[in-house]
Amino acid sequence: MVTLFLAVLLITHVVEMKELEQLRRDDSDAAMSSVVFTIIILLAVLLIIKFLVDIVFIYAAYKEKCGMMKKYCIFWIVFLVLFIIAFLKTLFQLSAGYVIAQILFLDQKYWKSLAEKELEEALQVRFNLRTAKNVILFVGDGMGPNTVTAARIYRGGESHKLAFEAFPHVGLLKTYSADKMVPDSACSATALFSGIKANLGTLGVDATVPQSDCEASLNKDAWVDSLAAYALKAGKSSGLVTTMRVTHATPAPLYAHSASRSWECEANMPANAKQCKDIARQLVEDWPGRDLHVEGGKIDMAHHRGRAKTAVDETVAMERAVQVAVDMTSDEDTLIIVTSDHTHTLTINGYPERGSSVFGIAGVSPFDRINYTTLSYGAGGPGSFQYDIKTIDNKTRSVRREPSKEDTESYHYEQIAAIPLDENSHGGGDVAVYAKGPHAHLFHSVHEQHYVFQAIAYAAKIGPYSSGYTIEVNIILLTTAVLLLIKLF
Ligand SMILES: *[C@@H]1O[C@H](CO)[C@@H](O)[C@H](O)[C@H]1NC(C)=O
Ligand SMILES: *[C@@H]1O[C@H](CO)[C@@H](O)[C@H](O)[C@H]1NC(C)=O
Ligand SMILES: [Zn+2]
């Protein structure tokens, strides 16, 4: 009787669950409750069968008084084994973590507790109005929001948080350059470090210098100082760490002024640019500082080759570096900023299952019946253009390659792109900026990219916001004041 009661109870619950699920058909998270649904159905079926068999057994035992018992036990052992196998199959297909979370929190409660935790954290956030003694600026080259999302899913699933995603303040940056809707690293790094928008391909100079115009770049009025230069002027030390060449377009605007990012050494310079100094010589001969700006430059390189997994892996590597910086410093005096110079054309396509690999297959296209990957690019190099020309029924057609026949989990796999170019191009979307520490709240909205310079200068009281004067100037002012006072009395 107890068994029957339990079965009825479960079936009622199942019906409720089913109604709930129908209400949320469009919700992509419905998969979660269907896990519980499956388990409960299995349990209910198990209990009903037990009830029926119990009746048969009691009847048989009553009639024969012996013999049945053994068969009955064997039947139950076989049945339980089958049930456990079915249960485990459900577990593994739908990811054990979700099933366990579901059993413990039961659907709505789980989501509510997630949101309540976030609200609690948000209510704890206080503005830190101190002056930043140290500033660490992480620039993930080409690390657009989709790259960050893919890195998050890769690292710990959809609800995971990367180290910098736990920072209390976040904004968006508009990355366009003075002349282009979509920038390159040279002009976007100039915006971040020197506070002005420049022309594509130029660095450390303002927009009066067209790309590759050596003569225009010789005009020192066009030169812009970087945060590193201002920090040195304020008597601070400053340095840079990069996974690229130190003369590459992203770090170069910290110390150099050049009409072309490709003038890294003399050999790369055209004959009509001979009176301009190459970027390497500017670093060695003109820059007073020695070896913190940290760049993860390989994210961009991997994206240019269309290798999303390598780019995502590099993003995770940068996240580890951010974590180290967070662990080594204090919120009291160190402003940590994580951002990017520009995006790439990486997209995350619909509708892969929760918990599946972000580098895997999203599904089959109902249009051409060929699988497609979760990640793809808008514009890409030859390796990203995965269409074959085939003759079908005497007609020439371009046919997409079947990705499930390739190792999409490989670091060298190149995701498909829609538009063929010589290499994967940058994207023009906004990038996120994450901040913690003194004046981190200045990053709170949709900002211009070159605002980052302004906000850092303000937070650290350097450059345009330095408390004014160096010690020598202060001594001169003080002496003048004293002399004036003496003269007055
Ligand atoms: C394709 O063209 C060839 C030669 O013109 C013809 O013999 C054949 O029937 C055509 N096949 C189809 C499927 O139309
Ligand atoms: C699509 O990919 C799945 C594996 O993800 C594979 O089983 C299936 O055969 C593929 N479909 C086609 C049309 O190749
Ligand atoms: Zn690039």
Automatic annotation (TrEMBL):
Active site annotation, chain numbering: 185
Write down the top EC class of this protein.
hydrolase
Lineage, top-rank taxon, reads Eukaryota
Name the positions where Zn(2+) binds.
Answer: 141
Reactions mediated catalytically: a phosphate monoester + H2O = an alcohol + phosphate
Question: Belongs to which family?
Answer: Belongs to the alkaline phosphatase family.
SMART domains, per this entry?
alkPPc
According to its UniProt record, which cofactors does this protein need? Answer: Zn(2+); Mg(2+)
What is the name listed in the Swiss-Prot or TrEMBL entry for this protein?
Alkaline phosphatase
Tell me if Phosphoprotein is a UniProt keyword of this record.
yes
**Membrane-spanning intervals of the chain:** 33-60, 72-92
Instruction: Give a yes or no for keyword Zinc in this entry.
Output: yes
> Could you tell me the keywords of this UniProt record?
Hydrolase, Magnesium, Membrane, Metal-binding, Phosphoprotein, Signal, Transmembrane, Transmembrane helix, Zinc
Q: Known EC number(s)? A: 3.1.3.1
One Pfam family recorded for the sequence: Alk_phosphatase
Annotated binding of Mg(2+), by residue? 141, 248, 250
Q: How is the cofactor bound?
A: Binds 2 Zn(2+) ions. Binds 1 Mg(2+) ion.
Q: What residue stretch is flagged as signal peptide?
A: 1-17
GO MF entries = alkaline phosphatase activity; metal ion binding
